[in-house]
Amino acid sequence: MELFDLSGKVAIVTGSTRGIGRAIAERLAEHGAKVAISSRKAGPCDEVAAGINARRPGAAIAFPANISSKDDLARLVEETRAAFGRIDILVCNAASNPYFGPMSGISDEAFHKILGNNIVSNHWLIHMVAPEMAERRDGSIVIVSSIGGLRGSSLLGAYAISKAADMQLARNLAHELSPSNIRVNCIAPGLVKTDFARALWDTPEAERRSSEATPLRRLGEPDDIAGAAVFLASRAGAWMTGQTIVVDGGQTS
Question: Which of 243, 195, 253, 252 is closest to 23 using CA atoms?
Answer without folding.
Answer: 195
